[in-house]
Specification:
Strand content of chain A: under 5%
CATH superfamily of one domain in chain A: MetI-like
Shape of chain A: globular
Radius of gyration of chain A: 22 Å
Strand content of chain B: under 5%
Distance between the termini of chain A: 43 Å
Helix content of chain A: over 70%
Number of domains of chain B: 2
Structural class of chain A: mainly alpha
Oligomer: heterodimer
Helix content of chain B: over 70%
Largest sheet of chain B: none
CATH topology of the largest domain in chain B: MetI-like fold
CATH architecture of one domain in chain A: Orthogonal Bundle
Distance between the termini of chain B: 40 Å
Number of helices of chain B: 13
CATH class of one domain in chain A: Mainly Alpha
Largest interface: A-B, 104 and 103 residues
Radius of gyration of chain B: 23 Å
Shape of chain B: globular
Number of helices of chain A: 13
Number of strands of chain B: 0
Structural class of chain B: mainly alpha
Chain lengths: ~280, ~280
Amino acid sequence: MTARFPPVPVAVVLAALAVLALLVLLPLAVVFAEVLDQGIGRALAAFDDPESQAAIRLSLLVAGISVPVNTLGGLAASWCIARFRFAGRGLLLTFVELPLSVSPVISGLVWVLLFGAQGWFAPALDRLGLQVIFATPGLVLATLFVTFPYVVRQLVPLMLAQGSDEEEAALTLGARPWAMFWHVTLPNVRWALLQGVLLLNARAMGEFGAVSVVSGRIRGQTLTMPLQIEALYNDFQAPAAFSMAALLALLALVTLAAKAALEWHTRRAPDAAWVPA
Amino acid sequence: MRGVFVHASPLPGFGPALGLTLAWVSVIVLMPLAALVMRPWSLGVGGVLASLGSARVLAALKLSFGASLAAAALTVPLGLLVAWVLVRGRFPGRGLADALVDLPLALPTAVAGIALTTLYAPNGWIGGLLAPFGVQLAYALPGIMVALVFAGLPYVVRTVQPVLMDLPAEVEEVAATLGARPLQIVARVVLPALLPALLTGFAMAFARAVGEYGSVIFIAGNMPGLTEIAPLLIVIRLEQFDVAGAAVLALAMLALSFAMLGAVNLLQHYLARTTR
């Protein structure tokens, strides 16, 4: 007979559910309650505001650049780290994961130190007539920094666990390198890759601290959706702020649902591997 | 290059992939962090010390690290409770409760910030219940703690959960057969097995809390010297065009949190050696 755990007392279950309700469920519920309170019509009217539309377009642009760039970079880094043993491999992994341990505000500040008015590259930018900080390029760079490790975090543990037997077999059977990559490597990691891309996208759309430092908060120009939420909230336009917040909360819910579906699909136990800082 | 620097492998593409990776890491991570490490010293050592020694900076650092330590210490038992119930409890909606745990990681911090503030403000759903008793959470230290525990909870739950799942029921059954009472089993058998995971969860929750910005600034009240966290002071310094001062505070924050994480790592190694 296999051993069984004693049942968890009802009071303990209720205590755990109370923790989840107070800290997680109710904050989520508040966002949608604030939207329903003002009425769906008024809530949707918040998106007629040209500044809010500009914020949505800017967030889509920033994510549209960050996601492919960091996906390609993440694939290259995962290929090196998970498939080869070389001097400095551990150090490289440490560098790749470093942004996870850096405060969002500092992740924005570092770009001000490089490209701001008093930054290292300020004279060069002046000569070229380029503006990075308080403009879209700064927002993209700050987002690239914070979303840098997401794909690697998903792929490296999986690729290490899978090993390279199938890839070596493909090469032995005469596959060219790219054919091996497309037909063996990529299909083997596709669900983990998709999960990494989803989380990368969610962070890119939702990042606040890093972009707030480089944004300069020019309305209609350098405010992404989270920054627009802050601007509206501080302007005593809480209803409009919550309309925008509900949109981002929906994105978070869709991301979580997709993540849960992918985990169910690959039957992997919930793990801490994807946890961002 | 192969054979000396890299172990021989039949797989292709090492050179180009490494080249791309190094370029990517250098431009996106190393160059910016190099600027952070070097910039403060433009003030000179005396200037750096003077900047760090100001009462406002010291108060912000003390608040950020003190509140983060306290929040992480509070998150560990709460996270353990949630993980325990998710692994061993049998109740309807367990899957949904499990999915909820990840929400603080996926919800943008600005959204979490205004939601927590609205919930815990004196006129909010929860704040309103506490206000008659003279308890104020939002715009004070307890509000900061709520936001930090919110941000840290998934880290503790997700590090403890897999370890708890792998714990064999036999061990606890044997302890029970030998006459141990339930609380004794938890304290003497289960907790020691979970200790490394709890420590990791603590370290992750702490690291996240120290840097946390978006979910805190709305609920904190942001009074200089009282409820002004270090990341906010960095932002304020930048807004006053004191770039070097912002860099000094940022570098001090990073150095302190890496030192704390290093200490936790050492403790982990020590535990691993003594329990083996």
